Inverse folding.
């Protein structure tokens, strides 16, 4: 089955991202395809490459990166909503340049894109599963 | 592209959290995809379409007027939970008058909001292909 996931909550504050990760992992292990994971609301914070949890805790961001969810062209399918990301201080290199600020924090296993990617995921997938409050 | 039935479930009040405004952003984008779109307002989500909202005191944008634009985007199925209204002491008269122009009926202006029981809403939800929850 082709499955997409929407994550509405940030890491560590809320279990949504952890649960979604375990769900995605189990789905892949069971032979399903994860078409796209879309990070929205505070969920965009799951894509920060500056996330540094203590040694004895899981690294939520790296866990997602290790799932290596990509499309046929090799682009990441861990997609961060651009509008939600920019207003929360999450920028990739291109957005940082565009907005004239130094530094960027999107992990390379993720990419920034528009809300249309969420709708498209809903259209293309057999199931869209939402994690959040 | 295939047409699917998308329902946006609005469960939170307009302010206090970003769920409501960011849900509306998705709905407006979704309109460009030519899908069958409906909205449901349940729990505190019913507050999103209450008439006479004023954000002057909280320094936030009053986005309630945007709901009036939905009709122009062919989004005219807005279901409101009757039970959620009653639980909050609200009636149909407290809600914004949201309308659309029906092109199949000489552009007659018709109400977009429909108050339904939770049992009816359950049926409508189970008839959807995709439910996005906010």
């Amino acid at each position: 089955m082709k499955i997409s996931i929407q994550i509405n909550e940030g890491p560590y504050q809320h279990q949504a991202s952890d649960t979604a990760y375990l769900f995605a992992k189990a789905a892949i292990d069971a032979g399903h395809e994860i078409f796209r994971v879309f990070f929205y609301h505070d969920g965009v914070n799951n894509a920060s490459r500056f996330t540094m949890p203590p040694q004895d805790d899981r690294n939520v961001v790296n866990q997602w990166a290790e799932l290596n969810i990509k499309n046929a062209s090799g682009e990441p399918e861990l997609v961060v909503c651009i509008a939600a990301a920019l207003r929360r201080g999450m920028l990739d290199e291109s957005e940082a340049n565009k907005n004239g600020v130094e530094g960027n924090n999107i992990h390379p296993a993720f990419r920034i894109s528009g809300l249309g990617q969420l709708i498209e995921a809903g259209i293309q997938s057999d199931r869209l599963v939402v994690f959040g409050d | 592209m295939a047409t699917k039935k998308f329902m946006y479930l609005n469960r939170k009040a307009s302010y206090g959290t970003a769920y409501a405004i960011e849900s509306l952003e998705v709905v407006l984008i979704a309109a460009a995809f030519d899908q069958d779109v409906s909205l449901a307002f349940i729990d505190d989500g019913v507050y999103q379409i209450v008439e006479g909202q004023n954000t002057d005191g909280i320094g936030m944008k009053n986005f309630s007027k945007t709901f009036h634009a939905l009709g122009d985007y062919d989004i005219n199925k807005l279901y409101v939970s009757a039970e959620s209204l009653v639980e909050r002491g609200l009636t149909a008269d407290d809600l914004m008058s949201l309308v659309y122009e029906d092109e199949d009926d000489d552009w007659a202006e018709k109400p977009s909001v429909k108050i339904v029981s939770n049992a009816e809403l359950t049926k409508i939800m189970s008839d959807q292909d995709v439910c996005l929850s906010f």
Observations:
- The interface with chain B takes residues 6, 8, 40-42, 83-84, 114-116, 118-120, 122-123, 128, 130, 132-133 of chain A (CB under 8 Å).
- Chain A has one domain: 2-131.
- The CA atoms of residues 25 and 67 of chain A lie 7 Å apart.
- The mean pLDDT of chain A is 97.
